[in-house]
Design a protein that fits this description.
It is a single chain. The protein has a single domain (3-186), classed as Glucose-6-phosphate isomerase like protein, domain 1 (Rossmann fold). The mean pLDDT is 97. It has 187 residues and is an alpha/beta fold. The relative contact order is 0.19. The chain contains seven helices and five strands, in the order ααβαβααβαββα. It is globular.
Length: 187
Amino acid sequence: MTISQYLTGTAKLLTETAEAGLGQPVASAIDVLVEAIDAKKSVLVCGNGGSAADAMHIAGELVGRYLLDRPAYKVISLGSDPAITTAWSNDFEYETLFARQVEALGEKGGVLWCLSTSGDSENVVRAVVAAKNQGMTSIAFTGRGGGKLADADILVAVPSLSTPRIQEIHTCLYHYVCEQVEHRLVG
């Protein structure tokens, strides 16, 4: 595959995503994030592997700044503290790591924003259950179908089964969400 073919494939998936009817769930995600941030509620973001890196990226954009100078937002990337991650995973189990952190850091009116290309990552699925128990709204960015995370309050499912391609589109989508959140909160 040439670089031209690769980029053309990504452009094709961007077009398919734009035409996949994701406008409403993305708008809903922006609405709940703006509402939670404006109310000073916690926004927790989680994922595994590349999606964990994306969760940290999202937290960085929202705690720091995306495009606009503004106050910091209360956003935490779960799993990014190695002491908590290794202590809980070693002493108990990795599958409940994010749920445990939601129990500790989540609050009614807050948001749990999950990223999972398959939608079936057990620790992410359990985090959504914990968030619902806390009265939080859950947003799931996944690949085609949503997997088990299709039960999240808001599902943004990229129409692909290719992990790298889904992650590329997730980046575009969450950059758009960060831009819109800032715009709505700052003006």
